[in-house]
Amino acid sequence: xPQPHLRTVVVLAAGEGKRMKSTLPKVLHPLLGRTxxxxxxxxxxxxxxxxxxxxxxxxxDQVRAHLAEIAPDATPVxxxxxxxxxxxxxxxxxxxxxxxxxxxxxxxxxxxxxxxTVGALVTAHxxxxxxxxxxxxxxxxxxxxxxxxxxxDGRLEQxxxxxxxxxxxxxxxxxxxxxxxxxxARLRAALGKLSTDxxxxxxxxxxxxxxxxxAGEPVAVHVAVDHVETLGCNDRVELASLxxxxxxxxxxxxMRTGVSLLDPVTTWIDVTVALDRDAVIDQNTQLRGxxxxxxxxxxxxxxxxxxxxxxxxxxxxxxxxxxxEVGAGASVGPYAYLRPAARLADKAKVGTFxxxxxxxxxxxxKVPHLTYVGDATxxxxxxxxxxxxxxxxxGVNKHRTVIGSHARTGADNMFVAPVEVGDGAxxxxxxxxxxxxxxxxxxxxxxRQRNIEGWxxxxxxxxxxxxAAQRARGAQRSGDAKGAxxxxxxxxxxxxMHGRAETVGGASGAGDTATx
Length: 516
Ligand code: UD1
Ligand code: MG
Fold this sequence. Notes:
Elements: E1 7-13, E2 30-31, E3 34-35, H1 36-44, E4 51-56, H2 60-70, E5 75-78, H3 85-94, E6 102-107, H4 115-128, E7 132-138, E8 147-150, E9 156-160, H5 167-170, E10 174-183, H6 184-191, H7 207-214, E11 219-223, H8 236-256, E12 260-261, E13 267-269, E14 274-275, E15 280-281, E16 285-288, E17 292-293, E18 298-299, E19 303-306, E20 309-310, E21 315-316, E22 320-322, E23 325-326, E24 331-332, E25 336-338, E26 342-344, E27 349-357, E28 359-361, E29 366-374, E30 376-378, E31 383-384, E32 389-391, E33 401-403, E34 408-409, E35 414-416, E36 419-421, E37 426-427, E38 432-433, E39 442-443, H9 455-459, H10 464-473, H11 478-489, H12 492-495, H13 508-513
This protein binds uridine-diphosphate-N-acetylglucosamine and magnesium ion (MG).
Residues 109, 232, 234 line the site of magnesium ion (MG).
């Protein structure tokens, strides 16, 4: 649809934000998934502006780099010296070709501004063919803000900064939100007439209103329904309070779409996250970035998900995931760590004290306990025994392990990559698997157990252990223990298991100890 008016958005983001006491420019501080600047730009996005100019100054390089990422179409314009908001807008307009239309100016530090509100401001302004319209709000505490001074008929007379205001003006609780719509031509003309005759010696954008009014031009006030949207951010205490307000807004919106939040106060959901109906988010949970939670999934308590996709009906309990995918009906945790490119297919399980990185775990496969899976592909319906390590790193390079489908690997295995365990294969508990295990084979890679009879009585005589052993064995002659120990002592290599099929009968213990 063609715009009736050419629209230019100007975001003021050159200020230092001294009170943040930060090396990071104020507008780059994050707030539930976007920077302050990102929030402002996304509030302005539905205006479908023909051009967007961001005035940068303090930390200009950092702000430019951020803009290139989040709003590559926006034009950064440098205001080398911060000589006031009027000066900033003048510089911004110098950088865009002359033209008619509407100029929307937004302070860079009002992250709670809603698109609907800035949209309503601009529509009201354009419909009234005003020269300038300011977004105002009635606030409980106007300290530090510019006041809206109205005449006897209730029309805007001027905007006065607190430090330039008299006592009567200071008592006004209707404030300038720092968000405006202007007719481009009349704004340009008025900007040329700004003085620095004020307490800060700056060119105030707000003086444009008094100037236009004196020239008989129509200026208007658009009052925001909810003053919270106009709250600025000047220090980290305010930032924290904005974060709580935004959290409540985001949480309420999700609950209204059919998501259960069991404890909204401890649930922090970035504005960029998507949740499906009947998802249940339990307490102390942070959902960040591009995270998506499917219908009916259960997430929490005590979960952090960053850029993670959780499928329908899956559950993630007391765990941390970054850049992972959890399939439908899959189960994660408690105490799991999913790292980038950990991909669990449908109904897979990653259990307790398990870390997974850059690995696919096939449908229905389980990694239940105390295991590291790195750079691996695990087929379907396989079970990885407890306390296993996918040994992926040779000190220089990473290598992959492939486990087939319906495999059963024993507890306490090392898979020294690159290595492959075939479909339907088993491995014995305690094995260090360095060679491929063919489909259906039992891989055994461990020394066979030998018992040195009587060792404790002989070598630890007089200890409670030795006494207990003696009691258990009844009255034994010391000669028995001695003789047995000698045979045991020489039995080493000849009795070590070499993985012969028949010795594996004993290693059916592998299956026993492979936990499910
Ligand atoms: C401004 C308004 C005040 C309003 C308040 C709302 C003026 C003179 N006053 O005051 O009426 O109630 O916002 O929050 O405009 N900036 C630049 N270049 C500059 C100066 C500022 O880019 O030379 C940017 C800042 O980075 C900031 C915005 O403009 O994003 C507002 O500047 P700030 O110094 O915070 O103005 P306030 O004193 O808060
Ligand atoms: Mg301010």
